């Protein structure tokens, strides 16, 4: 029964993804897909391992910069550029993860935030990142040498493919034996250790996977918008992805996708109102924490079960 | 001493002074975080916003009501403390029985609201707050011209830090606080009103941040984002020092400020990241932090 429900969800998601660009503005959809993948990757860590990272912008943003740099300055083809950015995020995740898992709970959040701020300052100072301007005009180029990505629909389906790949991968990770051990660690770490599981190496691997997939989202975003900027590595971005997961439902498969859609839509409509976006995001944060901890999908699941 | 590196003694002492000032702010803010964390088990993400509010209340007081610096030094922390108490009573209180992460997320949301509100009202360009007349000018110490206001900032924040340390470690009230950190249920059983203690502690921590904000107002530009950037550095300071020890937070704060100042002299490019690098190294060799206890 449960499997059936998820399968239905998948089919709806794929069908909606294919039809959507004929109904809704495709550039908006691509933005939503990139952030949805980012939020799903983040949720792999918070929702299924119980680790709250406040520095995921570091992976998202640095991958965006690397991809932009190798495509623009070194002339890499687009798919290789995205791959390079993603691999870099995996590597950065390995370094940051091995430092951060040495402490738990709130310290973990503070460490990831501080390390991400270091990346922010580096991106601000290094010449290759273009400082305040960021990297602009990243060419979209041709996928596999012949599919013209400057065509919006081609680009959209490429992004949809990447998203579905990442989404399915996360689904497989969560439902693998490895994912079950992660959940055991989340629920009761000492007990998981006493059963013979090496909690630290599981946490580290989850961290690396989450970082790498966040990087994939960031790399794709830089190609879509042809831009990598300081906003991508700023702590505000780390906060945003936490909010997306929280709004949609932490620890649910479809939650982060819904959360990302909600937040991106909100930003889209409020973009003319200056700092009100920040204020409203703060209010949503407070409301989620106080009265709406399960998020949209979590609450829906609870309703269906009743 | 370092002339062969192209560094003048004046430059060195100047940067060390800047480091000392930054260090005093790190110390005051991480002390407030440590006090709040001790009793409430919450990492107060609103701390940076409270620091910013202190500076803004002082600026608004002078601009609209003619309240001078010295009154602001008392009134602004009080105002920030009262706002903190209201937040604790209405919102934070509901989360004590839940995972600590929710407290962190709630205070992060509050920080966004406060910062966004001030940005909407005052823009991000920043406002000027003049140094009070009694503290303008500088004193010649022989090897350096010491601006009087900066000397005052260092002295005032260190005095406040040591006052806080004295209250917590050497008085009856402090004994209650420490007991509440160890075992709130037992303390309550002895007839101490723990919820009131918790509320006042949060108010005190917020007021401390507000006080630092007033001190900072004439040095840095008073602007809505002044707190959030500082707070992330303070988080790194807290990870390095550990939240367990009051004296430890003060020492770590001042020490890291000085190291940051030295980095500005010898390797300016590294000054914005040096504290984060130190944090990474400390995590490698002593994961619990310099003054932390391994749980």
Summarize the structure in words.
The complex is a heterodimer of chains A (306) and B (295). With 306 residues, chain A is mainly alpha-helical. Chain A has 14 helices and four strands. In chain A, strand 2 and strand 3 form a beta hairpin. In chain A, helix 2 runs parallel beside helix 6, helix 3 runs parallel beside helix 5 and helix 3 packs across helix 9. The two termini of chain A are 15 Å apart. With 295 residues, chain B is mainly alpha-helical. Chain B contains eleven helices and two strands, in the order H-H-H-H-E-E-H-H-H-H-H-H-H. At the A-B interface, helix 5, helix 11 and helix 13 of A face helix 4, helix 9 and helix 11 of B.
Question: What labels describe this entry?
Answer:
heterodimer; A: 306 residues; mainly alpha; two-stranded antiparallel sheet; two-stranded antiparallel ribbon; 14 helices; globular; B: 295 residues; ABC transporter involved in vitamin B12 uptake, BtuC; 2 strands
Low-confidence stretches of chain B: none
Regarding quaternary structure, what we see is heterodimer
The average pLDDT of chain A is: 89
Whole-number tally of structural domains of chain B? 1
β-sheet strand percentage of chain A:
under 5%
Instruction: Please count the beta strands of chain B (DSSP E, at least 2 residues each).
Output: 2
- Number of contiguous helices of chain A: 14
Widest sheet, order of strands of chain B: 1-2
In short:
The complex is a heterodimer of chains A (306) and B (295). In chain A, 75% of the residues lie in helices and 3% in strands.
């Amino acid at each position: 029964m449960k499997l059936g429900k998820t399968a239905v969800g998948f089919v709806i998601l794929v069908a909606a993804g294919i039809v959507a660009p004929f109904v809704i503005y495709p550039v908006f959809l691509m933005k939503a897909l990139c952030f949805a993948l980012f939020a799903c990757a983040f949720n792999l860590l918070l929702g299924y391992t119980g680790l709250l990272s406040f520095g995921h912008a570091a992976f998202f943003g640095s991958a965006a910069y690397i991809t932009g740099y190798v495509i623009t300055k070194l002339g890499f083809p687009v798919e290789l550029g995205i791959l390079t950015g993603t691999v870099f995020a995996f590597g950065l995740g390995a370094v940051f993860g091995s430092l951060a898992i040495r402490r738990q709970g709130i310290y973990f959040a503070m460490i990831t935030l501080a390390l991400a701020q270091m990346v922010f300052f580096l991106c601000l100072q290094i010449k290759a990142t273009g400082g305040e301007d960021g990297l602009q005009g990243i060419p979209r180029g041709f996928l596999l040498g012949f599919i013209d990505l400057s065509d919006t629909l081609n680009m959209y389906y490429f992004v949809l493919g990447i998203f579905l790949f990442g989404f399915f991968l996360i689904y497989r990770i969560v439902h693998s034996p490895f994912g079950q051990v992660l959940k055991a660690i989340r629920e009761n770490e000492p007990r998981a250790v006493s059963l013979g599981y090496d909690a630290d190496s599981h946490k580290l691997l989850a961290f690396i996977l989450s970082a790498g997939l966040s990087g994939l989202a960031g790399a794709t975003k830089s190609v879509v918008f042809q831009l990598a900027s300081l906003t991508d590595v700023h702590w505000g971005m780390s906060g945003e992805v936490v909010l997306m997961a929280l709004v949609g439902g932490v620890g649910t498969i479809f939650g982060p996708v819904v959360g990302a859609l909600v937040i991106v839509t909100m930003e889209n409509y409020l973009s003319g109102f200056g700092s009100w976006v920040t204020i409203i995001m703060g209010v949503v944060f407070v409301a989620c924490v106080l009265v709406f901890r399960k998020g949209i999908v979590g609450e829906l699941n609870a309703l269906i079960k009743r | 001493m370092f002339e062969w590196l192209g560094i003048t003694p004046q430059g060195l002492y100047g940067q060390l002074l800047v480091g000392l000032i930054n260090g005093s702010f790190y110390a005051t803010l991480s002390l407030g975080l440590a006090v709040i964390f001790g009793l409430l088990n919450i990492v107060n993400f609103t701390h940076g916003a409270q620091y910013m509010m202190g500076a803004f209340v002082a600026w608004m007081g002078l601009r609209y009501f003619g309240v001078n610096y010295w009154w602001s030094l008392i009134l602004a922390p009080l105002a920030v403390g009262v706002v903190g108490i209201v937040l604790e009573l209405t919102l934070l209180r509901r989360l004590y029985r839940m995972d600590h992460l929710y407290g962190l997320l709630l205070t992060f949301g509050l920080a966004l609201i406060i910062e966004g509100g001030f940005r909407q009202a005052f823009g991000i360009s920043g406002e000027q707050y003049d140094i009070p007349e009694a503290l303008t000018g500088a004193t010649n110490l022989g090897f350096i011209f010491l601006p009087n206001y900066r000397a005052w900032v260092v002295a005032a924040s260190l005095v406040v830090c040591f006052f806080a340390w004295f209250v917590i470690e050497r008085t009856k009230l402090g004994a209650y606080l420490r007991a509440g950190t160890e075992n709130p249920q037992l303390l309550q059983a002895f007839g101490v009103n723990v919820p009131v203690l918790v509320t006042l502690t949060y108010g005190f921590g917020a007021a401390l941040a507000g006080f630092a904000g007033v001190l900072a107002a004439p040095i840095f530009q008073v602007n809505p984002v002044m707190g959030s950037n500082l707070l992330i550095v303070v988080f790194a300071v807290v990870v390095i020092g550990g939240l367990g020890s009051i004296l430890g937070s003060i020492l770590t704060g001042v020490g890291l400020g000085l190291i940051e100042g030295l980095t500005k002299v010898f390797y300016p490019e590294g000054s914005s990241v040096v504290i984060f690098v130190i944090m990474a190294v400390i995590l490698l060799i002593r994961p619990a932090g310099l003054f932390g206890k391994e749980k």
